[in-house]
Recover the amino acids of this structure.
């Protein structure tokens, strides 16, 4: 009986079979597992895999090289107690038969999508059931262990997937901070926002939420310092000053600020 294969790409690539770690040695093997796991609902064409793995640039016979890597992947599955039939072949395409729920990127994406749908449900101008939304987003964001797809080949599909995951993470973080503010948790916002801003220094909404939380906590000097930091970054990186949302925030009493709807 084969064990359940689970794959994590939200950080250094991680694979487990039946709950036991299954080490992946080599960039090519890690890349194949990551790419096939991310696209587990369809067959990846042979030419797509060749491009992602950079085989056309490094070998004279890219097709044979790909076959060798697929054979290595099957051996890895067998050695770690997983059914080698998990690699399905149709024509010149390959698919990894792994449950969507067994891939952390899919759990994250599905969790955020569901949370955002709940947040927008019948809530013009604000968040619906913010405490529920916060819990859902906290769970989804907990899937992250580091930079996505950080130790796989830097092919176009992998790069695009990593960019999309980061964009969705930013959206999730913005709505999470709104949910915390809406449920009187400014301290959580003040603690989490600096790390979020470090990842997305040009995200104006995150900076607004950070300053708003500091105001709610009565830490007005820190709020002014946070604004000055934002102003410096925007002028240095973009040659512009922060937008009106940030500029007016320092002059708005915290109790009068309304947490906006999720973007």
């Amino acid at each position: 009986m084969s064990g359940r294969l689970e794959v994590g790409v939200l950080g250094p690539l991680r694979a487990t079979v039946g709950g036991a770690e299954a080490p992946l040695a080599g960039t090519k093997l890690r890349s194949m597992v990551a790419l096939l796991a991310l696209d587990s609902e369809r067959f990846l064409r042979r030419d797509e895999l060749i491009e992602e793995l950079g085989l056309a640039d490094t070998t004279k016979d890219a097709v044979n090289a790909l076959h060798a890597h697929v054979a290595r992947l099957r051996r890895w599955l067998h050695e770690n107690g997983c059914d080698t039939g998990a690699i399905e072949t149709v024509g010149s395409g390959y698919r990894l038969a792994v449950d969507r729920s067994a891939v952390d990127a899919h759990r994250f994406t599905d969790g955020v999508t569901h949370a955002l749908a709940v947040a927008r449900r019948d809530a013009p101008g604000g968040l619906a059931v913010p405490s529920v939304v916060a819990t859902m987003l906290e769970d989804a964001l907990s899937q992250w262990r580091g930079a996505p797809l950080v130790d796989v080949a830097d092919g176009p599909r992998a790069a695009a997937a990593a960019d999309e995951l980061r964009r969705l993470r930013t959206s999730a973080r913005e709505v999470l901070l709104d949910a915390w503010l809406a449920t009187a948790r400014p301290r959580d916002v003040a603690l989490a926002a600096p790390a979020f801003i470090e990842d997305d220094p040009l995200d104006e909404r995150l900076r607004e939420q950070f300053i708003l939380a500091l105001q709610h906590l009565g830490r007005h000097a820190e709020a002014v310092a946070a604004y000055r930091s934002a102003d410096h970054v925007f002028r240095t990186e973009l040659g512009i000053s922060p937008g009106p949302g940030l500029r007016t925030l320092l002059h708005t009493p915290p109790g009068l600020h309304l947490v906006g709807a999720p973007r």
